[in-house]
Amino acid sequence: MEREKKYTKGEWYIADYSIEANNKMIASSIPINMDYGEEERSNAQLISAAPDLLEALEALQDQYIEICNNVGLSHIIDENWAFQKAEKAIAKAYGEKE
Question: Quick one: pLDDT at residue 32?
C-alpha cells in the first residue's frame, strides 16, 4: 500500500542542536536541563535517520511480499511477526491508528 509522504522531503541532518532538512528546522534536540551529552547526540542521530529508516523498511516489506507471492507463500505474510512489527512501525510513522 502506497502511503502519502507528508513529512519534510530531503536529507535530514544534525545542525548544532536541531535536526534540519532543506535549511528548515524539523526538530530541536536541546535537552531541558541543557546538558547535551552522548544520549542527546544519539537521539538526534536517530531522529535524523528516520526518513531513511522508513524508506528502507518499506522497501524490505515490499520485497518480502513480492518474494512470498512469487513462491506461493502469500498466506504466511500476515503471520510473520517481523512483518507485523514492521507494519506497526510504518503505521506509527504515518500517524495511523493501530
Answer: 65
User: What phi and psi, each to the nearest 5 degrees, are found at residue 60?
Assistant: -65, -40
Count of domains observed in the chain: 1
Upper half-sphere CA count for residue 45 (Cβ side, 13 Å) = 6
Instruction: Tell me, yes or no, if the pTM score tops 0.85.
Output: no
Phi, psi dihedrals of residue 3, rounded to the nearest 5°:
-105, 150
Q: Determine, yes or no, domain membership for 4.
A: no
> Does residue 57 belong to any structural domain of this protein?
yes
What b-and-e string marks burial along 17-39, b requiring 16 or more CB atoms within 10 Å of the CB?
Answer: bbbbbeeeebeebeeeeeeeeee
Walk along the chain (98 residues) in steps of 10 and give the mean pLDDT of each run.
85 88 86 73 90 95 94 90 93 86
Question: Does residue 47 lie within any of the structural domains?
Answer: yes
**Structural domain for 28, as ranges:** 13-93
